[in-house]
Design brief:
Elements (H helix, E strand, L loop, with lengths): L3 H4 L7 E5 L7 E6 L6 H11 L4 E6 L21 H18 L7 E6 L1 H12 L6 E5 L21 E7 L7 H13 L3 E7 L8 H12 L4
Parallel strand pairs: 2-3, 2-4, 4-5, 5-6, 6-7
Antiparallel strand pairs: 1-3
């Protein structure tokens, strides 16, 4: 029998929490960290966003990476890690749902590898979410990957922000991802920042605050 940890490497990984207790929160954010980072790292966005009434849930990737190869690699190359990571995101979304929060009260937020994961999860499980915020990311898979996702984002606010000098995220993939998510019914905002590398800037945080304020007015 195959070792479960080899088939589902992110199974049972811890989920860090901050902000309002989930059972009292008006909305929840699922925060997905980048490669080499931690759940605690991405939870610093809770202070940067500073919105009361929100629960922040940050799962920790096994080995500090959601999948082993670049997000533009063939999908099979990143398995079973990618499917395991998507399943863990789904489990955290379900946890918020079990606490009484509908999908339109749950936002998916990620940076870098976590941004790619957030976008891919939203596309593969399209429905109306509270928001989808991707800082320096794009849909996963090589050029030419079929994007025949089912479902509809039904007007979900989707934000993609990226620098034009980001060494990890090609602008063409950001643009393509924005177009795919718009076709899925997302209300998409894409913002490209001249001269910015691989980071989150204050304009992106301000945009996040504005979108998330609608979840917990």
């Amino acid at each position: 029998m195959a070792d479960r940890s080899a088939l589902d490497p992110h199974a049972g990984q811890p989920v860090r929490a901050a902000g309002e207790p989930l059972e009292r929160a008006r909305a929840a954010l699922v925060l997905l960290h980048g490669r080499g980072a931690t759940a605690d790292d991405i939870l610093t966005l809770a202070d940067a966003i500073g919105q009361p009434g929100l629960a922040y849930l940050a799962p920790q990737a096994a080995g500090f990476s959601w999948y082993p190869f670049p997000f533009l690699a063939p999908l099979d190359a990143n398995e079973p890690h990618l499917s395991s990571a998507l399943a863990l995101v789904g489990a955290v979304v379900a946890q918020a749902g079990q606490a009484g929060l509908a999908p339109d009260r749950i936002a998916l937020v990620g940076f870098s590898q976590g941004a790619c994961l957030a976008l891919e999860y939203a596309a593969r499980h399209a429905r109306r979410y509270g928001a989808v915020l991707a800082f320096s990311g794009g849909l996963i898979g090589p050029d030419g990957t079929p994007r025949d996702y089912a479902g509809s984002l039904d007007g979900t606010s989707v934000f993609l922000g990226c620098g034009d000098r980001d060494p990890h995220i090609p602008l063409a993939r950001v643009e393509h991802s924005a177009d795919v998510l718009a076709r899925l019914g997302g209300d998409v905002t894409r913002r490209i920042y001249p001269g910015m590398g691989h980071m989150i800037n204050e304009d992106e945080l301000a945009t996040a605050r504005e979108l998330l304020r609608r979840l917990a007015p």
